[in-house]
Specification:
The protein is an all-alpha fold. The chain has one domain. It contains twelve helices and no strands. α2 crosses α6 and α7 runs antiparallel to α11. The longest helix has 32 residues. It starts with 7 loop residues before the first helix and ends with a helix. The C terminus is likely disordered.
C-alpha cells in the first residue's frame, strides 16, 4: 500500500480543532468566568493589604520597594489565570471511566490531544486577563516595562507554561498506577506555589536556601518570568534564565516520554 505523506498543516489540523472545541466548551461556563475574575481581585486586595502592613512595620526584606512587590504580586495572579489550568486532568478521569484503552486506539497522539485541549482552555482564560487587569489597576498601579523586557517576559512565560504542562502531565500519569492523584497533585501544587515564587518572591529567601529554590523546576514556571518582568533579571541574564527553563523542559519531556510508554504497556498488560 502506498504511503501517503501528509503536510504539517494536515497533521496539526485535528489538534487545532480539539483546541477550538475546548475553547467553546469553557466559554459555556460563564459563571465560572466571573468567579475566577472575582477571586483574583479578592486575592490581590488581600495580598496588597498583607504587603502594605509588612512594609509599614519594616518587616519586609530590604532592597525591594513596596510598589515593585505589588506589581510582582499582580502579575503573578494574572499569570495564575492561565497556569492553574490543567488540561491533563482528563487522563485521571478517563482511567477511572475505563475509556483510556479506547482512546489509545485512536489515530491521534493522546499527549498532543491533552496539550491541545489545554491550549483551548488557556486561550479563553487568557481573555480573562483583560477584565482582570482593568479591575486590578483600580487596586494597585502596575508598572509596564519596555518592549524588549515584555518580549523577554512573554518568551519566559511560554517556556514556563510548557514546563507546567509537563509537570501536570506527569502528576496525572500517576493515575495509571494509583487511580487517584489528588494527594500527589495537592502536594506538588503546594510546593509549586510556595517554591515557585507565586506567593512570595524567591529573592526574599535567605542565603543558600534562595539558591536552592531558584534552581528547582518550580522557579521556571512563575519566578523566572516574574523576575524578568520586574527587572531583577537584567537583559544580560536572559539567556541563562531561558536556558534553565529549556533544561527543565527537556528533562520533563524525556521523563514524560518514559512514563507514558510505561503507562501504555501497563494498559495492554491489564488487557485494557
Amino acid at each position: 500500500m502506498e504511503h501517503v505523506r501528509r503536510s504539517p498543516g494536515e497533521l496539526l489540523a485535528p489538534y487545532v480543532a480539539f483546541a477550538a472545541k475546548a475553547f467553546s466548551r469553557e466559554a459555556t461556563y460563564r459563571m465560572e468566568v466571573f468567579t475566577n475574575v472575582g477571586s483574583l481581585v479578592v486575592r490581590l486586595y488581600l495580598m496588597k493589604s498583607v504587603w502594605t502592613a509588612l512594609y509599614a512595620q519594616n518587616a519586609a526584606p530590604a532592597g525591594v520597594s513596596l510598589h515593585a512587590v505589588l506589581t510582582y504580586t499582580a502579575i503573578a495572579l494574572l499569570m495564575s489565570l492561565v497556569l492553574e489550568l490543567d488540561g491533563t486532568r482528563q487522563i485521571r478521569d478517563r482511567i477511572r471511566e475505563g475509556s483510556i484503552a479506547t482512546d489509545l486506539m485512536k489515530p491521534i497522539s493522546l499527549p498532543l490531544y491533552f496539550f491541545s485541549d489545554g491550549v483551548g482552555m488557556t486561550l479563553l482564560h487568557a481573555l480573562l486577563i483583560v477584565p482582570a487587569l482593568i479591575v486590578s489597576l483600580l487596586i494597585v498601579h502596575i508598572d509596564v516595562p519596555p518592549p524588549h523586557v515584555l518580549a523577554a517576559f512573554a518568551l519566559s512565560f511560554l517556556l514556563g507554561y510548557l514546563v507546567n504542562f509537563l509537570l501536570n502531565f506527569l502528576m496525572n500519569c500517576v493515575a495509571f498506577w494509583t487511580l487517584e492523584t489528588f494527594a500527589v497533585q495537592l502536594m506538588v501544587r503546594w510546593m509549586s506555589d510556595l517554591l515557585g515564587g507565586q506567593v512570595v518572591p524567591l529573592i526574599f529567601f535567605p542565603g543558600v536556601f534562595q539558591k536552592i529554590v531558584l534552581a528547582l523546576p518550580f522557579a521556571a514556571i512563575y519566578s523566572t518570568p516574574l523576575l524578568i518582568y520586574v527587572g531583577t533579571i537584567p537583559p544580560s541574564g536572559y539567556l541563562a534564565a531561558w536556558g534553565a527553563q529549556v533544561g527543565w523542559f527537556i528533562v520533563f519531556a524525556l521523563l514524560s516520554a518514559v512514563i507514558w510508554h510505561a503507562a501504555q504497556r501497563r494498559v495492554v498488560v491489564q488487557g485494557g
